[in-house]
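Entry:
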Amino acid sequence: VAILVALKLGRPVVFRQVRPGLRGDPFEMVKFRTMTSARDERVELLPDAERMTKFGAFLRNTSLDELPELWNVVKGDMSLVGPRPMTLDQPDCYGEALTEYKRVRPGLTGLWQVNGRNETTFEERARLDRYYVHNWSLWRDAVIIVRTVREVLFSSGR
């Protein structure tokens, strides 16, 4: 995947972004790049929709862009299952659920990824993340992993 990203989208191969993790502590999340670096005449990045390629969309639809996040799991910044890492501008949107969100490591997959994926609203994601934290179990994590594989293979919730 890294070789194809380099050939089709150029370098850098990975996209790095600071996200809040356990206790809200920031960490650098890594993903494979899915967009070009195309810029306008003012040298500003073009809108995301204009920089997305068919290859980048394929990486996102198959979740292959998220493979480098396994490094975040190995480092201890993330877990395999948990609330997805939010962006730095999203904590205020979580409302009361933010306290629960900060109690666990963000995950490579989570409850809202297997309950509608990108078709869910932000409020629904926060509710599902809060439910996950309050009802965590190893069995639930195993079920979420199996369901994630099914969602990715059948491109549900896109």
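The radius of gyration is 16 Å.
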